[in-house]
Amino acid sequence: MALLFGIGYAGIIFEESLAFNKSGVGLLMAVSLWTVRSIGAPSTDIAVSELTHASAEVSEIVFFLLGAMTIVEIVDSHQGFKLVTDNITTRKPKTLLWVVGFVTFFLSSILDNLTSTIVMVSLLRKLVPPSEYRKLLGAVVVIAANAGGAWTPIGDVTTTMLWIHGQISTLPTMKGLFVPSAVSLAIPLALMSLTSEVNGKEQETPNVLASERMAPRGQLVFSVGIGALIFVPVFKALTGLPPYMGMLLGLGVLWIVTDAIHYGESEGQRLKVPQALSRIDTQGALFFLGILLSVSSLEAAGILRELANYLDAHIPNVELVATAIGAVSAIIDNVPLVAATMGMYDLTSFPQDSEFWQLVAYCAGTGGSMLIIGSAAGVAYMGMEKVDFFWYFRKVSGFAFAGYAAGIAAYLAVHKLNISLPTTLAEVPFLSGS
């Protein structure tokens, strides 16, 4: 099974060279692995029971992604994101660098990093003419999208996976990872501000914003759509139901709203949910389905537990394990890495919101920025702006690595501070009651 997984994953990594779509490879790998598992299991009934359990967990993530992607597509079709992009008025290169970085950072904390990258790179095409500077701004979007997605449960697929399965919860994650995520963006921005592409000349870039007009009642759709996304963790806290139910609730509300506001409009059909469903990245959802089912087969066979035991024996330091996961995610997609980690370590080894799970969320989310192929945001940017792998490696990877390392240091510093603070306060006479 390990050999099959390795072959399948090689097919995913070299998808461009082999001309095989990674979604097809992922689905083929999943079915092959579970077939082998059914043959090797004590009985077919046991294998079927394991597959049923794995399918239930994986389906939650797929339904969540489909709902989120549809909501974002509806908002985008109404040009709702112009409410964000139209407020970026500066044209000074250094200022624009920081503005784009932090707008993407906070946008990605609400949306997913892939959608945020697509929105912001599309904006850059309207703000800045083709140049090395625009390519650098695009790289900032990738780093910021990955950093912003790491500190909220709905900002990145991997943090969503950890959240859905109970390894992390909403408020402790946001409080614990906001500072490290912000540091992992601020350090690259500070270093990039010193480069010749930014400081070569303080020219005012022309305003080449496209003359797109917001669709009728686009502000309403934007408000309802973003509100639906933000309401998901609130829904989970209020009802105790899985997050995908909150996402489907938000999609249902937005569906009714768009049907109502475009009732009787012949041109409004393209703005309704059925059209949005035809435009979402279904093959991406199928890729996640295939890769997560594949990893669950390794978990069912006990392979991941053996790997965890090996890591425990040779790398007893949890910080190093999480850091290594982030470094590997620059080469290998972080979704299977986090899925494998969840299979290797359970909540009895590391309880919810422990230092280990928060570090895994941070490292897997931001580590992919070190190479352009290390994250969905990087791959999208590579395709949209035709950026070369080696250009990114020479110009950006060092900055991204500096931010990644600084963020880990910031997390450890804040974590140790939070541990020592109550002890210090308890020693104050009037607080201890003495």
UniProtKB/TrEMBL annotation:
Keywords, ordered alphabetically: Antiport, Ion transport, Membrane, Sodium, Sodium transport, Transmembrane, Transmembrane helix, Transport
UniProt-recorded Gene Ontology molecular function terms: antiporter activity
Annotated source species: Manihot esculenta (Cassava)
Citrate transporter-like domain boundaries: 10-342
Listed name of the protein: Citrate transporter-like domain-containing protein
Listed transmembrane segments: 96-124, 136-154, 174-194, 220-238, 285-304, 324-347, 359-384, 396-414
Location, primary (coarse class): membrane
Keyword Kinase: no
PANTHER family: SODIUM/PROTON ANTIPORTER 1-RELATED, SODIUM_PROTON ANTIPORTER 1-RELATED
GO biological process: one example: sodium ion transport
Membrane topology summary: Multi-pass membrane protein
